[in-house]
Design goal:
363 residues, 17 helices, 66% helix, mainly alpha
C-alpha cells in the first residue's frame, strides 16, 4: 500500500494522536472539523473508487436505484438526493455531504463519550472502517454513525430522541430498525455469568451451524425487498472465526475483566464494552447470514474506535501505555493494509490506487 492519499490520511491522524498522547497538542474541535471537511472533499470527488460508486452515480443522475426491486433506496437517502439534485449540485457534492455528515457524527459521539483523544478515534476509524464505510457500503456507514448517536443519546436517558435517531438511521439503511430493541439493553450492567453465557450461545450456534436453518423458520425475510438482496448473497455458509473476531473477543473480555469497577460505575465505558460484546454475539450467532452479520456487526464493532482511546489513556504507567500504543499501531497498520487487498471476485482492489477529479460544483 503506497498510494499517497491513503498514506497521508493515516499519517496525519497518527501524528496528531501521538502529539496528543505526549501532551504536545491539545484537542481542537475546529481543527478536527476542518480535517474532516478536507477528507470529505476527496471522498466526494473520488473517481471510480469503491464497489458501489457507479451505482450511486447512476442513482443520483436518474433518481432510480437500479439494484432494488422497488427502484428506490431508503427515504432519508432519497430525500437528500432529491434536494441536492433539485438545487443543481453535481453528484460529487452530494457524496461530499454524506461523507462529512457521517464523519462529523462520529466526532460528536466521541465528545459525548468523553474520549480524551479524538484524533486517536479517527486513527482507529481510518484503519478499520473508513475504506468500507466511505467508499463501498456508504449507506451502511451513514447508518452506523446515526446509530452511535442513538446509543450515546440513550445512555443519557433520552430514549425518545434515541429512537428518533434510529429511524433517521433507518432512513439510510433499513437494517437500523433491528437496533431499536437493543437501545433498551445496551446500557445495562451485565454480570460475568451473563457475558460468558451470551457469548457461549453465539459460538455454539456458529460451531454447530445452527444458524444455517435460521431462514427456514423465518422465510418471510426473503420476501422483503431491502433484506432479500442480502440473503441471496449468503450461499457460502458459515465463515467461522476471523482474525479480527478473535482479537475482538480477547480485547473485549480483557477490558471487561480488568476494569470491572469502571464498567459498573462509568456509563460511557459500559456502553462501549456492551457494544463490543453484543457485536461478538451477533457476528457469531448470525455467522451463516454473512451480509446481515456484517451490516449489524460492523455497527457494534465500531465501538473499537472509542475502546482503544479509553484503553490507552486508562493506563497509568507511561511506559506500559507506550507499549500498548505500539501494539495498537501494529494492529491498525495490519488491518489498514488489508483494506487494499484485491477483491476475490474482481481480481483487483476497487479502492486502489486512489483517483479524484474536481469537476466543479454545479451540473
Amino acid at each position: 500500500m503506497n498510494d499517497i492519499y491513503y498514506l497521508l490520511l493515516w499519517t496525519i491522524f497518527f501524528v496528531l494522536s501521538i502529539m496528543h498522547f505526549f501532551g504536545v497538542l491539545k484537542y481542537s474541535k475546529h481543527l478536527t472539523s476542518v480535517l474532516l471537511l478536507v477528507i470529505s472533499f476527496f471522498v466526494g470527488y473520488r473517481n471510480n473508487i469503491g464497489l458501489d460508486w457507479i451505482s450511486y452515480v447512476d442513482f443520483y443522475n436518474s433518481g432510480v436505484a437500479a439494484d432494488k426491486l422497488s427502484g428506490a433506496y431508503e427515504p432519508v437517502f432519497m430525500l437528500a438526493r432529491w434536494l441536492f439534485y433539485s438545487l443543481g449540485f453535481r453528484y460529487e457534492v452530494f457524496f461530499l455531504f454524506l461523507s462529512f455528515i457521517s464523519l462529523y457524527l462520529i466526532k460528536k459521539c466521541a465528545e459525548q463519550l468523553g474520549v480524551k483523544n479524538t484524533y486517536l478515534v479517527f486513527l482507529v476509524y481510518v484503519s478499520l472502517f473508513f475504506c468500507i464505510f466511505q467508499f463501498n457500503i456508504v449507506r451502511s456507514g451513514l447508518m452506523a454513525s446515526c446509530l452511535w448517536v442513538a446509543f450515546t443519546t440513550s445512555k443519557e436517558g433520552k430514549n425518545k430522541k434515541a429512537i428518533l435517531w434510529c429511524f433517521v438511521a433507518a432512513g439510510f439503511h433499513v437494517v437500523a430498525l433491528l437496533f431499536i430493541p437493543l437501545l433498551l439493553i445496551i446500557n445495562k450492567s451485565y454480570s460475568l455469568k451473563w457475558v460468558i453465557g451470551i457469548l457461549l450461545v453465539g459460538y455454539v450456534v456458529m460451531s454447530f451451524h445452527i444458524g444455517d436453518i435460521f431462514l427456514d423458520y423465518f422465510p418471510f425475510l426473503k420476501s422483503i425487498d431491502r433484506v432479500a438482496g442480502y440473503l441471496d448473497n449468503d450461499g457460502e455458509g458459515s465463515r467461522g472465526i476471523t482474525l479480527g473476531a478473535a482479537f475482538n473477543l480477547v480485547f473485549s473480555l480483557y477490558l471487561y475483566f480488568s476494569r470491572k469497577d469502571q464498567y459498573n460505575q462509568a456509563p460511557n465505558f459500559r456502553l462501549i464494552i456492551n457494544a463490543l460484546i453484543w457485536g461478538l454475539f451477533v457476528t457469531s450467532f448470525f455467522n451463516s447470514i454473512g451480509m446481515i452479520a456484517t451490516r449489524v456487526g460492523q455497527v457494534l464493532n465500531m465501538s473499537l474506535i472509542f475502546a482503544w482511546p479509553y484503553f490507552i489513556h486508562s493506563i497509568k504507567n507511561k511506559g506500559v501505555a507506550i507499549c500498548a500504543f505500539l501494539l495498537m499501531t501494529v494492529y491498525l497498520v495490519m488491518f489498514y493494509n488489508k483494506a487494499f487487498l484485491p477483491n476475490e471476485i474482481l481480481g483487483y482492489s476497487p479502492i486502489f490506487p486512489f483517483e479524484y477529479n474536481f469537476t466543479g460544483v454545479f451540473r
